[in-house]
């Protein structure tokens, strides 16, 4: 017998989402008895500043002690001096102008005399001024300046007294710092160098003038103007070279000037004289003439020569 039962159809298969593969990472920590060290602290490196290269110091001029002594404060010349001059400023200015005119500085300055001190002494005396080494040694200098002379400097024009006093100080300060071939150089040359420096400092008295009479080594402004002409015609620094050549032990005139300028000094003097107009002083009466060496010069008569010899003894 046939039954009326028939199998039920199977339901359609369910739509399955595609399988997604997942990975799970399991972090495991293994405990040990070891201690984990702390990380080393890292400090930021300091900013480095480049080290500045120090330049070598520029050579400078030597210095010395400056001293002052006035032996008679009641003298009229002392009152004039103090009312017209600042002693510390003016002595320093005199040293500066002398060194800058006669020398160029170096690291050792071995070409500059080793003057250690300069003392200005104002006192009553016949001669105008002079410079000597002290009893201690020749590196300590004394400038003696006449109060009598200071008291007689004209008051007019207004700057006359100050300029004259400073001019004398500059002239005498040259003697503290110049060379002289161990005393064998002509005094006219060393005095001429002193007045040349005064001339270049703008401190020449109003009556100074160029002269072609006499010899080249007449000294003071007479030789000072001659040296100024050499400076202008044979190159800047010519007088500086003259002074430094006097470092030699002995002065030989021909060798000295030929070595510096390739000419004898007489030839140089003749060239210089050709540049000067006729000397007007030759027509002046003797009693109308200014003192030949000017108010600046150490006026050395027989009495003052004798006095200086006593001082030096």
Describe this protein with a few key phrases.
4-stranded mixed β-sheet; 10 helices; 313 residues; alpha/beta
Describe it for me?
This protein has 313 residues and is an alpha/beta fold. Helices cover 36% and strands 8% of the residues. The chain has ten helices and four strands; from the N terminus they run E-H-H-E-E-E-H-H-H-H-H-H-H-H. The chain has a four-stranded mixed β-sheet with strand order 1-2-4-3. Strand 3 and strand 4 form a beta hairpin. It is extended. 27% of the residues are buried.
Q: What class would the helix/strand composition place it in?
A: alpha/beta
Elements, N to C (H/E) = EHHEEEHHHHHHHH
Strand order of the largest sheet: 1-2-4-3
Q: What kind of sheet is the major sheet?
A: 4 strands, mixed
| SS elements, strand count | 4
C-alpha-based Rg, rounded? 45 Å
Measured distance between first and last alpha carbons: 180 Å
Beta-strand residue fraction: 5-15%
Q: Give me the number of helical elements.
A: 10
Morphology call: extended
Low-confidence stretches: 19-32, 281-313
Helical content (DSSP H or I, runs of 4+): 25-40%
**Average pLDDT taken over every residue:** 83
Short recap of the structure:
With 313 residues, the chain is an alpha/beta fold. It is 36% helix and 8% strand.
Architecture blueprint of SSEs:
Elements: E1 65-70, H1 76-84, H2 87-102, E2 117-123, E3 129-133, E4 140-146, H3 147-151, H4 160-177, H5 187-200, H6 220-233, H7 238-245, H8 253-261, H9 265-273, H10 302-312
Parallel strand pairs: 1-2, 2-4
Antiparallel strand pairs: 3-4
Helix pairs in contact: 2-4, 4-5, 5-6
């Amino acid at each position: 017998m046939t039954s009326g039962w028939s199998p039920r159809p199977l339901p359609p298969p369910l739509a399955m989402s595609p399988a997604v593969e997942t990975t799970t990472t399991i972090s495991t920590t293994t405990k040990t008895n070891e201690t984990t060290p702390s990380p080393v602290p890292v400090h930021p490196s300091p900013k480095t500043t480049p080290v500045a290269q120090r330049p070598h110091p520029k050579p400078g001029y030597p210095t010395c002690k400056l001293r002052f002594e006035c032996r008679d404060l009641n003298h009229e010349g002392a009152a004039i001096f103090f009312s017209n001059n600042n002693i510390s400023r003016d002595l320093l200015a005199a040293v500066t102008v002398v060194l800058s005119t006669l020398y160029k500085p170096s690291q050792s300055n071995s070409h500059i005399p080793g003057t250690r001190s300069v003392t200005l002494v104002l006192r009553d005396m016949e001669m105008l001024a002079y410079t000597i080494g002290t009893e201690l040694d020749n590196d300590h200098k004394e400038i003696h300046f006449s109060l009598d002379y200071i008291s007689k400097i004209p008051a007019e024009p207004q700057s006359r007294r100050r300029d004259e006093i400073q001019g004398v100080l500059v002239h005498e300060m040259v003697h503290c710092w110049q060379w002289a071939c161990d005393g064998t150089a002509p005094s006219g040359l060393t005095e001429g160098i002193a007045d040349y420096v005064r001339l270049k400092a703008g401190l020449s008295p109003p009556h100074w003038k160029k002269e072609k009479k006499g010899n080249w080594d007449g000294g003071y402004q007479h030789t000072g103007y001659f040296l100024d002409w050499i400076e202008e015609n044979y190159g800047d620094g010519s007088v500086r070279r003259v002074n430094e050549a006097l470092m030699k032990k002995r002065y030989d005139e021909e060798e000295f000037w030929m070595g510096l300028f390739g000419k004898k000094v007489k030839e140089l003097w003749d060239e210089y004289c050709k540049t000067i107009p006729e000397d007007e002083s030759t027509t002046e009466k003797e009693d109308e003439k200014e003192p030949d060496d000017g108010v600046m010069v150490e006026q050395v008569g027989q009495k003052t020569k004798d006095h200086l010899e006593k001082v030096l003894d």
